Amino acid sequence: MPHIELKDAINRSFDYVIIGGGTAGLVLATRLTESADTSVLILEAGEENLDDPLITKIGLYGQTFGQEKYDWCSMTVPQVNADNTVFPWPRGRILGGSSAVNFTAWNKPSKEDIDAWEKLGNEGWNWETLDKYISRATTYTPPTLSEAEHARRGTPRVFKELWAKGPVGNGPIQISYPPYRTDLDVKIQQAIQGLGYPVAPAPLDGNPNGVTIGAMSVDPETVERSFTGNAYWKPNSARPNLSLLTGAVVHRLVTTETDGELVVTGVEFFYKSGGGEAYTARASKEVILSAGTLRTPQVLELSGIGSPEVLQKVGIPVKLALNGVGENVQDHIHSTVVVELKDDVQDETYDVLRNPGEAEKNMALFTKAQGLYTMGINTFLYAPLPALSDKGQEIISSARKEIEAGIAAGKYPAGLADQYKIVLENIEKVPTCEIIVFPGAFGGKNMPAPGKKYYAFVAALNGLFSRGTIHVTTTDPAVPSAIDPHYFEQDIDLKTHREVMKFCRKLAGVAELKEYFGESPQELNPGPSVSTDKDLEDYVKRFSSTTFHPIGSASMLPREKGGVVDNKLRVYGTKNLRVVDLSIVPLHFGSHTQCIAYGVGEYAADIIKGLA
Ligand SMILES: Cc1cc2nc3c(=O)[nH]c(=O)nc-3n(C[C@H](O)[C@H](O)[C@H](O)COP(=O)(O)OP(=O)(O)OC[C@H]3O[C@@H](n4cnc5c(N)ncnc54)[C@H](O)[C@@H]3O)c2cc1C
Q1: In this predicted model, what pLDDT tens digit does every residue of 505-539 receive, in sequence order?
Q2: Contact in structure between 556 and 335 (CB atoms under 8 Å)
Q3: Using an 8 Å Cβ cutoff, are 226 and 23 in contact?
């Protein structure tokens, strides 16, 4: 029963109602309905657009941003520690959620980053277990290259050995390597190694520190996006026990109380118009919130589940006091160093596609899985700060002193103090910093010049100390919650960002890359006027961006430490409400996030089935 009509959603009861047909939500729905006896209704705010080129074609990065057909078009509140800059926070509002609009980079965190969740009090949430579930979601198809091609690309030994193992797994999401590779990408990988950085010893197996050749969530045959919409939903959409209503925006849970605990009997939603009449879908077993880090806390708070202080301020009666809702929000952030390529460089970059004729030519090539739209993002460097900057140790020591004194003085909430202790323990081991090498102009203050080609060195921070909030400001479900990531509230975040930008400049200027960037690289962004440490700090406050990885707004932690869900993803104080999306992640990790959303969805399915 693929799509159902409104009347079918409201006239019967389902075992499980899942709010949000995004990344984790569709994984869960598909796995639960493997048993024909289990009925699931998915309520998804967006629509199904599985064959839309803006979704399927990798290389059209970011073109869904700001379009309500695909994007929630969320913005942060002005960031007081970043010159009151307001930052866009795109999220997928479409079947498949953010997996339908993401940049398809596929990488995994370090073992230590995930083991930290178990140390925070979440039994069973460690690298070994989560990686098992991530693997269940994927089929990994390495490239098969001739020896000559390996030699041309200088494929590092680690990758030759990894790729020689052949395909791994048989999960729905296809992981492969984009076929198109510029010579410059290979040169940059070698230049990074020339600076003393190793190739990551176990890039997808728990130790990503070092240079990595990026995998992507793309189908190796078609080089199209592989995501929950086409990989989990589509092949299973004919199941009679799996129902989907799109255009359904949930705003509230319907609850009663039994033995001092909330029981959720259904959910209220608006259909299509985004306002007007509210309808109710009923669940006989459980309701599961998979609306993502931005929207899951909104539904909880509008239902009277949250911090009494927050709820009372906007006039929502408190049904369940849970102070952690909408707290502990963590993000990744980046800025870019964009350098112009010399006019005689033959390598093509995404910049070429700004010419409509070239875009059309490459779109035709794409139908044969060729051309620039198959280029993807190939080169990544993961490292802790001291490996990138000679000021790294000093920055960390000063932060350590301040935070340890703060912990001793009881300055931080208990849950955060526990996080900081683990972060400080791991900070010189795990990749809190990342350089993404992007073949084309990307981000920053100045626009690219017509006819010019560029490379962007993306300086990304993956271990922010600042903690933010996402809270409702009104009872009106049509008004988005206030997103306040508190960017740069902790000074270490700003200093680290500055140093990673400096590393990107250093890399662009190495001798091995002069044939591409010239004797003294021409910088589009930040540009030569941004030269001192202070200039760089001022620049990143205004021109950095989210890396689209928010987590934590319904954290899995002990209740007395600000937790919203327990290790079985049950919302504390409720009998039959769970959260299954990235809002449950209690502490951020040094990789892109989609792998974890898949792992959480798969793990949750086994938990609910009683298998884990
Ligand atoms: C632009 C962008 C680029 C990214 N690039 C990468 C990348 O290259 N690599 C990587 O690993 N990760 C990337 N990510 C991150 C990754 O895609 C997300 O972390 C992950 O998909 C989040 O999964 P989720 O299940 O938590 O939420 P989502 O996938 O966002 O799912 C939430 C779903 O709930 C729906 N919903 C929300 N509220 C309601 C409501 N009230 N009623 C009904 N439905 C609702 C939404 O429409 C959505 O479908 C990117 C993300 C974005 C946005």
Answers
A1: 999 999 999 999 999 999 999 999 999 999 999 99
A2: no
A3: no
Is the confidence at residue 370, as pLDDT, over 60? yes
What pLDDT, on the 0 to 100 scale, is given for residue 273? Answer: 64
> Peptide bond before 526: cis, by omega within 30 degrees of 0?
yes
Which pLDDT belongs to residue 58? 86
Give the model's pLDDT for residue 179: 86
On whether 250 is known to bind a ligand per the annotation, the reply is yes
Query: Strands 305-306 and 320-321: what pairing?
Result: parallel
Q: At which residue do the structure tokens 């009090």 appear?
A: 121
Specify the range with the lowest mean pLDDT, choosing from 345-349, 374-378, 571-575, 586-590: 374-378
- How many helices (H) and strands (E) in the chain? 20, 24
290 lines ligand 1 (CB under 6 A): yes
- The pair of structure tokens assigned to 504 is 């990107």
Reduced to 3 states (helix: H, G, I; strand: E, B; else coil), residue 459 is: strand
Mutate to test the pocket of ligand 1, among 18, 54, 102, 331 (most ligand atoms within 8 A of CB): 102
Euclidean distance between CA atoms 537 and 532, whole angstroms: 9
Rounded distance between C-alpha atoms, residue 559 and residue 567, angstroms: 11
Per-residue pLDDT, averaged over 29-56, amounts to 96
* Residue 299 token pair: 């539904």
pLDDT at 112 over 90: yes
| Tokens encoding 599 | 């792992």
Nearest CA to ligand 1 atom 38: 291
439 within 8 A of 184, measured Cβ to Cβ: yes
Structure tokens belonging to residue 134: 């991530």
- Any idea of the CA torsion for 125, 129, 130, 131, to the nearest 10 degrees? 150
Q: Is the CB of 99 under 6 A from ligand 1?
A: yes
Q: Taking the CA atoms of 473, 577, 307 and 261 in sequence, report the sign of the dihedral they define.
A: positive
**The model's pTM:** 0.98
> Mapped to the 3 state alphabet, what secondary structure does 470-481 carry?
EECCCCCCCCCC
Catalytic residues: 549, 592
Taking the CA of residue 103 as reference, the ligand 1 atom at the shortest distance is 8
Q: What angle do CA 213, 219, 222 make, to 5 degrees?
A: 115
Query: Is the CB of 303 inside a 6 Å radius of any atom of ligand 1?
Result: no
At residue 22's C-alpha, the angle toward residues 126 and 293, to 5°, is 60
**Which residue's alpha carbon is at the smallest distance from atom 52 of ligand 1?**
102
Is residue 97 within 8 A of residue 228, CB to CB? The reply is yes
Say whether pLDDT at 380 is over 70.
Answer: yes
